[in-house]
Amino acid sequence: MLQSAGIPGLICILIIALIVVGSSKSPELGKVVGITLKEFKKSTRELVSEDEAKEDKND
């Protein structure tokens, strides 16, 4: 079974990513990740609001 990595796992992944990408590209990578998370949250909110609207119509 897969388990959550938690904070230590996340830190380890970030350190490995920093080594692979390099310190010069890390600000760009952070910006891209931030934009991606923002779009993901926006899409999730839209899906939830659509589901709530469908439930309201069915009631």
From TrEMBL:
It holds the Pfam family TatA_B_E. One of its GO terms (biological process) is protein transport. The chain crosses the membrane at residues 6-23. This is Sec-independent protein translocase protein TatA. GO terms for cellular component: membrane. NCBIfam families: PRK14861.1. It comes from the Bacteria. It is a single-pass membrane protein. Keywords: Membrane, Protein transport, Translocation, Transmembrane, Transmembrane helix, Transport. It is found in: Membrane. InterPro entries: TatA/B/E. It comes from Virgibacillus chiguensis.
